[in-house]
Write a structure and sequence with these properties.
The protein has twelve helices and 17 strands. The protein is of the alpha/beta class and about 400 residues long. Strands 3-11-10-7-6-4-5 form a seven-stranded mixed β-sheet, with helices on both faces. Strands 9-8-15 form a three-stranded antiparallel β-sheet, with no helix packed on it. It has a three-stranded antiparallel β-sheet with strand order 14-16-17. Helix 3 runs parallel beside helix 8 and helix 4 packs across helix 7. The radius of gyration is 21 Å and the shape is globular. The two termini are about 30 Å apart. Bound molecules: pyridoxal-5'-phosphate (PLP). The site of pyridoxal-5'-phosphate has 16 residues, from helix 4 and helix 5. Pyridoxal-5'-phosphate (PLP) binds next to helix 4 and helix 5.
Length: about 400
C-alpha cells in the first residue's frame, strides 16, 4: 500500500484512495483546449479585463438566461459587490444563514453591514423562509439566501417576502452552477447573484474568480465601476471602488470548461442517484429530492446518526470524506455570540453534528462509484470491508 504516494495538498494519498474531489481530472481531460486558450491569451498581450473576460461574461449570462454578467476576482468579492450594488451600506442588516461557507458572512461584514441569522429548513438545508419575518428590523436591507451544496433555496417564496417588505435579494450561487427551479437557473431570481469559480466548484477556474449577474443594467453598471476603483472612464473614480478584476487567463479557461458544465452536472446527479438507491440503513440519510428543482450536486452530503463511526469506516475503506461545514458560522470563534439570531438555530446545530460529505464527482470511475455504493449498501456492516489501517485526518477543501 505504500508503494507510490501521490499528494493532494499536504496529504499523502495511496493510489486507490477515492478523493473527495479531483479538479485536476477535468484539466487533464481538457488539457489541449486549455493549453490552446492559455497560449492565445499569452500571445494576445492583454491580461486583465480583455476580450476573454468580455466573452465569458456574455457566455455565462446567456447560459443562465440573464442580461448582465460582470467578472470579478472571487466569489466573496462577488457577494460584497452585489450587496453594495443593491444599496446595502454600513450598519444595514442582511438576513442569511449560519449553515454556509464562512465567505457568505465575511462578505457581508466587508461592507460594514451586519449579518443576521435565520435557521435552515431541515429538508432543503437552505434558508427557511418562514423564519424571515421573525428577524426583520428597521435596519434590514437585504436577504442573502445560499443555494447550499447545489440545492436551490425556495426563491419564489423568498422573493415574495422580500417584495412585501421592500428588501433586496442577492443569491449566493457559489455552489449552484446550473441548479434550477422549474427549469429557471438560480442566479436569475434575486436582484443580483454571486458566483464563485474557485477550482473545485462545478464550474471552476485554475485560480480565484467570480461573477455578479443581474437583469438590471444600473446594478451591472455599478458593479463594473466598483470592480475597478469606481472608474467610469480611466483614472476617474465616480464612486468609491476597489480592485476586483477577472483576469484573462481565468476567463479563457472558464470558456473552455463552460460547454461541459451541463453534462458534468448530469454525471454528478447520476452518481448521486446510485448512492440514494444503495442506502438501506435508517442510520444514513441521503439529501432529499425536492420536486421541481434541479440540484447541481456540488456536494453529496449524508446525514449520519453516528457520524464518527461512518467517517472512520469510510476512511478505512479508502474513501475520503469531508464535513461541510464542521462548525456553523455562529459557533466559530470570530463570530460566536455576536450575530443576532445565532442563539435560535436548532436545525443548523443538529445538522452540523451529523453531516458527512462523500465523493460525488463526474471524474469518478465505475469502480469508485461501485465501491462507495457497496459501502452504503453494507452499512452498518461496511466496516468489515476495511482495507486501510492508517487513517490520514485532513481532507481537501472543496466547498
Ligand atoms: C457558499 C459559498 N459562498 C461563497 C463562497 C466564496 O467564494 P470564493 O472562495 O470564490 O471567494 C464559497 C466558496 O467557497 C461558497 O461555498
Amino acid at each position: 500500500m505504500n508503494a507510490t504516494l501521490r499528494t493532494t495538498g499536504q496529504l499523502p494519498l495511496q493510489p486507490d484512495w477515492i478523493p473527495i474531489a479531483d479538479p485536476g481530472a477535468e484539466v487533464r481531460a481538457l488539457r489541449s483546449s486549455i493549453q490552446e486558450a492559455i497560449d492565445k491569451v499569452l500571445s494576445g498581450g492583454t491580461y486583465i479585463l480583455g476580450e476573454e473576460t468580455a466573452a465569458f461574461e456574455r457566455e455565462w449570462a446567456a447560459y443562465l438566461g440573464i442580461r448582465h454578467c460582470t467578472g470579478v476576482a472571487s466569489g466573496t468579492d462577488a457577494i460584497a459587490l452585489a450587496l453594495r450594488a443593491v444599496g446595502v451600506k454600513k450598519g444595514d442588516e442582511v438576513v442569511t444563514v449560519s449553515h454556509t461557507a464562512v465567505a457568505t458572512v465575511a462578505a457581508i461584514e466587508t461592507l460594514g453591514a451586519v449579518p443576521v441569522f435565520v435557521d435552515i429548513d431541515p429538508v432543503t438545508r437552505c434558508l427557511n423562509p418562514d423564519l424571515i419575518s421573525g428577524v426583520l428590523s428597521s435596519r434590514t436591507k437585504a436577504i442573502l439566501p445560499v443555494h447550499l451544496y447545489g440545492q436551490p433555496a425556495p426563491m419564489e417564496t423568498i422573493m415574495a417576502i422580500a417584495d412585501s417588505h421592500g428588501l433586496a435579494v442577492v443569491e449566493d450561487c457559489a455552489q449552484a452552477h446550473g441548479a434550477a427551479i422549474a427549469g429557471r437557473k438560480v442566479g436569475t431570481f434575486g436582484h443580483a447573484a454571486a458566483f464563485s469559480f474557485y477550482p473545485t466548484k462545478n464550474l471552476g477556474a485554475l485560480g480565484d474568480a467570480g461573477a455578479v449577474v443581474t437583469d438590471e443594467a444600473s446594478l451591472a453598471q455599478r458593479v463594473r465601476e466598483m470592480r475597478e476603483y469606481g472608474w467610469r472612464e480611466r483614472y476617474v473614480s465616480h464612486i468609491a471602488g476597489t480592485n476586483s478584476r477577472l483576469d484573462e487567463l481565468q476567463a479563457a479557461i472558464l470558456r473552455v470548461k463552460l460547454p461541459h458544465l451541463d453534462r458534468r452536472n448530469e454525471q454528478r446527479r447520476t452518481v448521486a442517484a446510485r448512492y440514494r438507491q444503495a442506502i438501506q440503513s435508517a442510520e444514513l440519510t441521503a439529501p432529499a429530492v425536492i420536486p421541481g428543482t434541479t440540484h447541481a450536486m456540488h456536494l453529496f452530503v449524508l446525514e449520519c446518526e453516528i457520524r464518527s463511526a461512518v467517517e472512520e469506516s469510510f476512511l478505512r475503506s479508502g474513501v475520503r470524506t469531508g464535513r461541510h461545514y464542521p462548525m456553523p458560522v455562529h459557533r466559530q470563534p470570530a463570530y460566536a455570540g455576536r450575530i443576532r439570531g445565532g442563539d435560535r438555530l436548532p436545525v443548523t446545530e443538529q445538522l452540523a453534528d451529523h453531516i458527512l460529505t462523500i465523493p460525488c464527482s463526474p471524474e469518478q470511475g465505475e469502480d469508485q462509484v461501485q465501491r462507495i455504493c457497496d459501502f452504503l449498501r453494507a452499512w452498518p456492516n461496511a466496516s468489515l470491508q476495511a482495507r486501510h489501517t492508517s487513517i490520514p485526518h485532513r481532507s481537501a477543501r472543496i466547498g
